[in-house]
Amino acid sequence: MSTPSKERKHQAPASFPKPEFTGAEAGMLEFPSSNSRSYNYFTPQKMRATVYEDVTTDVQPDPERYLTQGWIYGFARGPGGYPHEWTAVKSGNWHAFLDPNEEWEQTIYRNNSNVVRQIELNLQNAKDAGAYAHWSRSWTKFVAENVGAWMHAEHGLGMHVFVSAQRSAPTNMINNAIAVNSAHRLRFAQDLALYNLDLSDSLEVFDGKVHRDAWNNNPSWQGVRENVERLTAVEDWAEAVFATNVVFEPLVGVLFRSDLMMQIAARNGDYITPTLIGAGENDYNRDLRYTRALFSLLGHDERHGAANRSTMQGWLDKWTPVSAHAAHELQPIWSQPSERTVTFADSWAAATDDFKTLVAEFGLTPAKEL
Amino acid sequence: MSRQSLSKAHAKITELSWEPTFATPAKKFGTDYTFDKSPKKDPLKQILRSYFPMEEEKDNRVFGAMDGAIRGNMFRQVQERWMEWQKLFLSIIPFPEISAARAMPLAIDAVPNPQIHNGLAVQMIDEVRHSTIQMNLKRLYMNHYIDPAGFDISEKAFANSYCGTIGRQFGEGFITGDAITAANVYLTVVAETAFTNTLFVAMPSEAAANGDYLLPTVFHSVQSDESRHISNGYSILLMALADEDNRQLLERDLRYAWWNNHCVVDAAIGTFIEYGTKDRRKERDSYAEMWRRWIYDDYYRSYLMPLEKYGLVIPHDLVEKAWDRIYNQHYVHRVAQFFATGWPVNYWRIDPMTDVDFEWFEDKYPGWYDQFGAWWEAYNRLAYPGRNKPIAFESVGYEYPCRCWTCMVPCLIREDLVVDKVDGEWRSYCSETCHWTDAVAFRPRYEGRDTPSMGRLTGKREWETLYDGWDLADIVSDLGYVRDDGKTVVGQPHLHLDDPKKLWTTDDFRGIEFRSPKVLLNQMSDSEREAWAAAYRANPNRTPATV
What is the pLDDT of residues B426-471, one digit of tens each? Predict the structure, then answer.
């Protein structure tokens, strides 16, 4: 048999089927299940499933629910799919976790586009108003080095903690929340990088390259870099998320962003940097909501709660000194700006207060040195 | 953003990565590929500042079209024949999409190129988008199409049906095993670059011809992201080619990935297009013609063949064999016939073929009527309960096929059946290549070299084994494919919802025993098995006109 149309140049058909009344609209007939218009294989949290629940639940199947044939591909050294053994914590029902942010594609793009637009407007206005011209030399250097160094931390965590962790959790609900977390981190890192580019273009004295040296060699930043790199090396996905969002973020991230940058920039004639940094804080607050929900659930799990709290306490004890060390290594940068409106001690006290409140929610005890 | 400022911005973003000195990122997913000699290839430049608003705009268009479809009563003109197959398709596809998101860390782990990492991370977000936007489309269908049964159990049915498991390879294959085999060759180089053309371009055009313009709206929006993914895959492929040691693995993986994609995707999409459509205009391309255009010409000749200049051996034989199966050996038609045979355990309804369909098939695939015509006539005749059992359990000259252990589509090109004892049990395979995939490729040694990262084929791969010896009524109840009156089944071999007497219930299935071909195969003596295999290969499985 010969090959049809093998050498024929493709042409779109000249005709198109005529519209036809088929009557295939809901409600045209009554028959069994004619009104069954909701996904019925999961129990929604409230009376009616949200769009988020509908588009997320059970898309990643589970041998403990409906996946009767099991995972059909395996790794060379272990089962495929999403093994529960990929983390030390356990759950009586992993599917109980729902992201309080209810992230799905519409929320992801709306939220991030709004942030992007806000930042772009701020930067354009700043340029038009010549806002950077009033910056002192010391502040310019401070931003180039320290805001510049921070963007590496955001990028490293986004790329090698959260992108990696979203492969591993047992449910789609958890993995999607982590994926959105990574998108926030990567976007914010790029926001800062492009801000750096803007400043390089606007200010002759702004050194757009010094951020690399600050991140790689400046002693103040080596504790943070070490903390970030060690976080990327964690294999247990829940530990990585916990150590980043529950320990590193409050003790280092919020300390730098909220308790330093947001407090001192205006006094140094800079009303632009806080608008960017605020976007990062907003991202973290959003990501903290799912983190809280996840670890509260694990900490209060009926069957595994006690064991999980013990595991999480172990993580807390392991990572708190690392992040506390990173924070204290950063201390010298508090004295660099000409206008020093907060002391490191004030900032540290604020950060640790929030941290203690957070870990108490999970039934954990912060390290004594705090 | 201008091209110049885009390049500048992209260059700046590449400064974000650094060489770690305290600790390196965990290598969770191994690969046997090496990238020590690889040049750093730069994929398509993408910056999140422009990415998010661009995607938001695309989303707005999609949601605008959805509103318009509801206001314009689109469902009064969609073809039920088409929509029913969407219950299967849209139960499967969100999982491969989300699996592609989960595959990105495998590639990031394996490939030491920060520029590619950025592209892969953006792809991860795209894939979350695709998965949820497709689930939302299905939700809209469930709410507005006349028969929501099947949509309402969608992800459960995907997880426990015999079809879902076939489709699941196109997803699990992205996230498991050797990181490059899975996340690069199988996912990007073959699945996304070749087969999304039929999935996301050919199929939507057929949807439009059947009155459904929402599927094209959503899937073209999805496809517009694919070019970036293809660019990611190509960059990694070129990096892998820089190391001579990778060549053998690439050639292995291209053979596996090409053949598995063909077996799975052509089976599914070919059936949806050819048997889901009511559009029988002769000038309308058949699936074979679409395949020739989108896969043979656009992928094989324009993408795959140029890789020969890098010294890579391309699986020409398998491309030609796939074409031969699709056109000359009626692969798609045999799959459709199998799905229709299995209607009692489906969660969608299958419309019988009519004389208009027969004429079109015969025109597009000469010899079609001789092979399939009498069977579809029997399907039509046996469509209602009361006087007969479902067609699979009536004597119409159709022998229920055994399952391919590798691709899990049945062994439908019967003369190509391979039977072998692998891992201590007798397995059947649809083709030499599927046998090779299990017995040779997915092993810890390959052609004399260690391949410790290569994945394994696992799980209860023959669905029928789960229900061997069960009563058909109990199977359907266990699966949950029963409507809300507690007895009418979701799957029906026709579209007549207006007459309750025409709707099959579990009562009509009571007393019918279901058997697993694999269990039976393993109970045979050597001589019985040889005789059975010879008879299987020789049987054309053609329904006589007199039945």
Answer: 999 999 999 999 999 999 999 999 999 999 999 999 999 999 999 9
Helices (H) and strands (E) in chain B, counts: 24, 5
Q: For the stretch B348-367, what's the b/e string if a residue is b when 16 or more beta carbons lie within 10 angstroms of its beta carbon?
A: bbbbbbeeebbebbeebbee
The 8-class DSSP code of residue B426 comes to E
By CB atoms closer than 10 A (0-12, 13-18, 19+), residue A42 is middle
A121–B contact, CB cutoff 8 A: no
Q: Which of B267, B305, B302, B263 is nearest to B287 (CA)?
A: B267
Distance between CA atoms of B160 and A69, rounded to whole angstroms? 7
Q: Please answer whether residues A56 and B135 qualify as being in contact, where contact means their C-beta atoms are separated by less than 8 angstroms.
A: yes
Among B76, B121, B283, beta carbon nearest to A25? B76
Q: Are strands B445-446 and B449-450 parallel, antiparallel or unpaired?
A: antiparallel
B421 DSSP β-pair partners: B426
One-letter amino acid at B132 equals T
- Contact criterion met (CB < 8 Å) for B136 and A117: no
| Residue B540 and residue B371 in contact, taking contact as beta carbons nearer than 8 Å | yes
Give pLDDT tens digits for B367-396.
999 999 999 999 999 999 999 999 999 999
H or E element: which one contains B136? helix B114-144
> Is A221 within 8 Å of A256 (Cβ atoms)?
no
Distance between CA B14 and CA B117 in Å, rounded?
10
Q: What pTM did the predictor assign?
A: 0.96
Beta bridge partners of B427: B420
Low-confidence ranges of chain A (pLDDT < 70): 1-12
By CA distance, what is B453's nearest residue in A? A76
Contacts of B452 in chain A (CB under 8 A): 76
Q: What number of C-beta contacts closer than 8 Å exist between A and B?
A: 373
Identify the pLDDT of residue B2. 60
Residues of B in contact with A182 (CB under 8 A): 121, 124
- Comparing CA positions, the residue from B438, B407, B441 lying closest to residue B420 is B438
Residue A2: the pLDDT is 36
The reported pLDDT for the residue numbered A5 is 46
Q: Does A49 touch chain B (CB under 8 A)?
A: no
- Across-strand partners of B429? B418
Contact B142, A37 (CB under 8 A): yes
CA-nearest of A275, A79, A60, A67 to A174 is A60
Q: What value does the CA radius of gyration of chain A take, rounded to a whole number of Å?
A: 25
Q: Which amino acid, one-letter code, is at A343? A: T
Q: What is the largest CA-CA distance in chain A?
A: 85
Rounded average pLDDT over B111-134: 94
Q: How many C-beta atoms surround the C-beta of residue B513 within 10 A?
A: 11
Cβ separation of A73 and B176 shorter than 8 Å? yes
Residue B461 burial (CB < 10 Å; 0-12/13-18/19+)?
A: buried
Q: Which pLDDT value is given to residue B4?
A: 61
Cα–Cα dist B186/B258, whole Å: 8
List of E strands, B319-444: 418-422, 425-429
Search chain B and give the residue with CA nearest A70: B459
CA distance B509 to B517: 20
* Residue B112 to residue B39: CA distance in whole angstroms: 10
Which residue, among B57, B73, B125, B291, would best test binding to A if mutated, counting the most A CBs under 10 Å from its CB? B125
Interface contact B23-A233, CB threshold 8 A: yes
Max mean pLDDT among A329-343, B199-213, B327-341 falls in B327-341
Strand, helix or coil at B488? strand
State mean pLDDT over B144-154: 98
**Closest CA in chain B for residue A68:** B160
